[in-house]
């Protein structure tokens, strides 16, 4: 992990889309990535020799609601603590940026839910359930 560079800026759309695909996350459009990435409240990228190997972002309104998204690590490097490093960077940002009563949410894929629990994230059910709607192709 010594040669890993931490950047606090969103990745380029092309590398973002590639890492999402490699890491098994749902595909997004290039158009959406080009619009959304610059609007991130906070982003962290992990790089080895300028190659994106991990990333995570925070999106939201910057006051009441924040959402942790795009936590991804290259599959060849998973299980080596990079996901935890990304979350440490994100939590440092959240502790400074989220005002009192601000709500931070995320959608956790299993088994990544165990990682998020280490940082104090809790399940919302049975009081509430996560829901989503997605625009078609």
From TrEMBL:
<feature type="domain" description="N-acetyltransferase">
    <location>
        <begin position="4"/>
        <end position="137"/>
    </location>
</feature>
<protein>
    <submittedName>
        <fullName>N-acetyltransferase</fullName>
    </submittedName>
</protein>
<dbReference type="InterPro" id="IPR000182">
    <property type="entry name" value="GNAT_dom"/>
</dbReference>
<dbReference type="InterPro" id="IPR016181">
    <property type="entry name" value="Acyl_CoA_acyltransferase"/>
</dbReference>
<dbReference type="Pfam" id="PF00583">
    <property type="entry name" value="Acetyltransf_1"/>
</dbReference>
<dbReference type="InterPro" id="IPR053144">
    <property type="entry name" value="Acetyltransferase_Butenolide"/>
</dbReference>
């Amino acid at each position: 992990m010594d040669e890993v560079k931490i950047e606090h800026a969103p990745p380029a759309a092309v590398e973002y889309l590639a890492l999402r695909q490699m890491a098994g996350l749902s595909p997004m459009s290039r158009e959406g990535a080009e619009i959304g990435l610059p609007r991130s409240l906070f982003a962290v990228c992990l790089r080895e020799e300028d190659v994106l190997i991990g990333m995570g972002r925070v999106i939201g309104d910057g006051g009441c609601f924040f959402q942790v998204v795009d936590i991804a690590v290259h599959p060849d490097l998973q299980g080596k603590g990079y996901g935890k490093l990304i979350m440490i960077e994100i939590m440092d940002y959240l502790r400074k940026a989220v005002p009192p009563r601000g709500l931070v949410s995320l959608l956790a894929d299993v088994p990544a839910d165990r990682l998020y629990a280490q940082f104090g994230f809790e399940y919302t059910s049975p009081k509430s359930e996560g829901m989503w709607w997605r625009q078609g192709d």
